[in-house]
């Protein structure tokens, strides 16, 4: 294969904290297992955020043919990107709801309605088609930044088209997990977990990105 490579992922300390109030301690509402589950979920979210950031670096590292943009859903452009990704393996389309809900398999034939029954069921049950011209469509979750519900964590304009076999994003963890417990004057407790961790993008030339320029908002 022409794409056999190896590389080193830089790691740095990532910290996840879990906070327990004095009332929760007195009432015994939070168990040690729940604390550890919250810490583990925190690291999962950190890995997920860094994974999306790594995929976005393909927009500057991948060949020009792999990176396209347009207004809304442009099937011909996406078809070409799928063709490139399929040369490296079985392609999959991954994106956020704002973009994948625009994907459709309309063939332009003279039938009314111009939609397959399976696509109609997908849209009714899930809000988007789960298969585009033989390529699976996967929704990436997004998170609200805070309780004002005014901003999401990720910018949703990008569609990532990549071969599933290559697993282009690599996660590296080094050393052991270190947990520190801090007692607050108010009686509450804070558990801070530290771990050396890094996320890197592997084989950027097999990743394609389509950007819908009409989608705005998002922090990362």
Based on secondary structure, the structural category is alpha+beta
Separation of termini? 34 Å
Order of helices and strands: EHHHEHEHHEEEEEE
Indicate the radius of gyration in whole angstroms.
Answer: 21 Å
The major sheet is characterized as: 6 strands, mixed
* Average pLDDT figure: 86
- Please give the count of helices: 6
Strand content: 25-35%
Low-confidence stretches: none
Task: Write a structural description.
This protein starts with 11 loop residues before the first strand and ends in an 8-residue tail after the last strand. The strands form 2 sheets. A 6-stranded mixed β-sheet has the order 2-9-6-3-5-4. A 3-stranded antiparallel β-sheet has the order 1-8-7. 28% of the residues lie in helices and 29% in strands. With 220 residues, it is of the alpha+beta class.
Topology:
Elements: E1 12-20, H1 22-27, H2 32-56, H3 58-61, E2 67-70, H4 75-86, E3 91-95, H5 97-100, H6 117-126, E4 131-132, E5 135-139, E6 158-163, E7 169-183, E8 189-201, E9 208-212
Parallel strand pairs: 2-9, 3-5
Antiparallel strand pairs: 1-8, 3-6, 4-5, 6-9, 7-8
């Amino acid at each position: 294969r022409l794409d056999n490579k190896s590389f080193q992922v830089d790691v740095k300390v990532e910290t996840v904290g879990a906070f327990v109030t004095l009332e929760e301690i007195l009432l015994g509402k939070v168990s040690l297992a729940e604390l550890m589950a919250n810490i583990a979920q925190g690291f999962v979210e950190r890995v997920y955020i860094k994974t999306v950031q790594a995929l976005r670096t393909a927009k500057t590292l991948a060949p020009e043919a792999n990176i396209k943009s347009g207004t809304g859903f442009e099937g011909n452009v996406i078809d070409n990107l799928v063709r490139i990704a399929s040369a490296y393996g079985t392609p999959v389309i991954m994106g956020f709801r704002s973009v994948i809900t625009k994907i459709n398999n309309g063939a332009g034939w003279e039938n009314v309605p111009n939609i397959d029954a399976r696509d109609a069921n997908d849209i009714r049950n899930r809000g988007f088609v789960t298969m585009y011209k033989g390529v699976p469509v996967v929704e990436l979750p997004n998170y609200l930044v805070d309780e004002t519900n005014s901003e999401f964590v990720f910018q949703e304009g990008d569609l990532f088209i990549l071969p599933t076999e290559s697993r282009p994003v690599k996660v590296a963890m080094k050393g052991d997990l270190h947990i520190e417990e801090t007692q607050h004057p108010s009686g509450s407790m804070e558990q801070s977990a530290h771990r050396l961790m890094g996320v890197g993008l592997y084989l950027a030339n097999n990743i394609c990105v389509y950007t819908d320029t009409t989608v705005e908002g998002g922090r990362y």
